[in-house]
Amino acid sequence: MSKEFLIIIFSAILVDNFVLSKFMGICSFLGVSKNLKTAMGMSGAVVCVMLVASAITWPIQHFLLNPLKLGYLQTLVFILVIAALVQMIEMIMKKSMPPLHKALGIYLPLITTNCAVLGVTILNINQNYTFAESMVNALGAGIGFTLSLFLFSGVRSRIDKADVPEALKGLPITLISASLVAVSFLGFKGLVENLFGG
Amino acid sequence: MSENKMKDVTYRSPDERLAEKKSKYTPKYIFLNGVLFENPALRLVLGTCPLLAVTISAKSSLFMGLAVLFVLTASEAIISLLRNVIPNKVRIPAFITIIATFVTIVQMLISAYFPALNESLGIYIPLIVVNCILLARAETFASKQKVLPSILDGFSMGTGFTLALLLMGSIREILGCGTFFDMKLPLFGSVFEPMMFFMLPPGGFFVFGICICLVQMIMKKQEKHSSGKGTSPCGTSSPSDCLSCAGCNLCKGKEE
Asked: What is the C-alpha separation between A47 and A143, in angstroms, rounded?
């Protein structure tokens, strides 16, 4: 049982990293990775929302949409739930945890349009995960997002100081270095099979 | 006659000039704007998620582009029709609901008629909902303009996005697989060894980076000829600034 959890979490963090191999959350990946502090703030907010969103959408799908044969409403319901959830988390944080709200608050509105959150909730359903497995998957996806943002903000601070050819300045060089970071993540392919004999 | 001429020469205030610019939304301007000047993928750099994920083959990129084209045109039409009905405060959830409805329609159509395609595009079809292009266009264009221009805008933005997807898909499929629309290409001969790199995720980032670099170079040359005005919907001049906020005007609205 715990082995399955380990497989899910390792593949979500390293092998199928949400940003670098599934391309989810690229907008925020490129947008907020300019410095480490904002990158960590954004990742913290994403991890929170991913966990809560998975915890809410899984029961909705299995106890509401499936019995009523409304599976086709999945996309519509999930995105609205996430949008409402983000708003609610923001209000709760503002009221009860002002320091945390100060740190993460400005990133919360942007998360609604972050495809990683919607992506992880839909993947949980598509992969037929149990409730516990989807929570683990959400945690892994969040950690994977954080890891890639953390690594990439380091790379970007080096690019700022580097002498980049005129034509590649700005976005192109950022994308090409993202490509190199993704190459390094290719090295984790086969990790899960080797570790757990899957 | 002479009076008319006089009027043309007189000084116009910035506001008047802005109004003049707005009336410039001729069909031709909207179309070129969507396909070239403000190409959503290569100029505004919106909707990068499907752009990088599905462009492993020309075929899947074409279908993804068409799906976005349909959703964009239909949702812009509906949003434009409802622009005076939707209260300003809940406009974003309302836009998302409309967009999600059309995405659901596309999802059902594809799984009914093209099951193989459903397999390859997979999760990226429902993810059209959170594609920044849709919300950005709803916010900046459809919620302010009449129905016909909105439909045209959706169509041209969608076409621009489809063309960009097709460009990237073709590059990646030709170099990574040696095929084009699943057809074997004779032009490389038997010595050509397909480069797996382009089919893998890093190849997507790489090709996208090169494409944007080329477009920026071309645009810079253009701008030198005519002091061009290629501003993004955020009002920022460079596309990379636009990136810092997913869904552009969402956050702009928050700040105000």
From this structure: 7
**Least Cα separation, residue B138 to chain A (angstroms):** 14
Confidence of residue A186 (pLDDT cuts 50, 70, 90): confident
Instruction: Say how far apart CA B239 and CA A27 lie, in whole Å.
Output: 12
What SS3 state is found at B184? strand
Which residues make beta-bridge pairs with B180? B183
> Which residue of B lies nearest to A34 if distances are taken between CA atoms?
B244
Residue B249 binned pLDDT confidence (cut-offs 50, 70, 90): very low
For residue B75, the SS3 value is helix
* Number of alpha carbons in the 13 Å side-chain half-sphere of residue A102: 3
CA distances from B209 to A174, B43, B104, B131, B171 (A): 8, 12, 31, 19, 13
As a whole number of angstroms, the distance between CA A147 and CA A21 comes to 13
- Is A112 in Cβ contact with B205 (below 8 Å)? no
| Cβ within 8 Å of A, B 139-178 | none
B240 touches chain A (CB under 8 A): yes
- Chain B residues within 8 A of A72 when measuring between CB atoms: 104, 107-108
Looking at the complex, does the CB of residue A159 fall below 8 Å from at least one CB of chain B?
no
Average pLDDT over residues B216-244: 55
A interface test, pick of B196, B205, B208, B249 with most A CB neighbours within 10 Å: B205
User: Searching chain A, which residue's CA lies closest to the CA of residue B197?
Assistant: A183
Question: Taking a C-beta distance cutoff of 8 angstroms, is the pair B50, B116 a contact?
Answer: no
Mean pLDDT throughout A108-121? Answer: 83
Give chain B's mean pLDDT: 77
A197 band by pLDDT with thresholds 50, 70 and 90: low
Q: Cβ contacts (< 8 Å) between A28 and chain B: which residues?
A: 246
DSSP three-state, residue B183: strand
- Tokens in use for A59? 């029961």
The full set of domain ranges for chain B reads 25-179+193-219
Q: How confident is the model at residue A56 (pLDDT cuts 50, 70, 90)?
A: very high
The label of the residue with tokens 């041209």 reads B156
Closest Cα to residue B171, out of B35, B42, B70? Answer: B42
Residue B36 in tokens: 């070239």
Mean per-residue pLDDT over chain A, rounded = 86
- B179 burial (CB, 10 Å; 0-12 / 13-18 / 19+) is middle
Note whether B94 contacts A: Cβ–Cβ < 8 A: no
ipTM: 0.85
Q: Is the Cβ pair A27, B206 closer than 8 Å?
A: no
Q: Does A41 touch chain B (CB under 8 A)?
A: no
Contact A172/B at CB under 8 A = yes
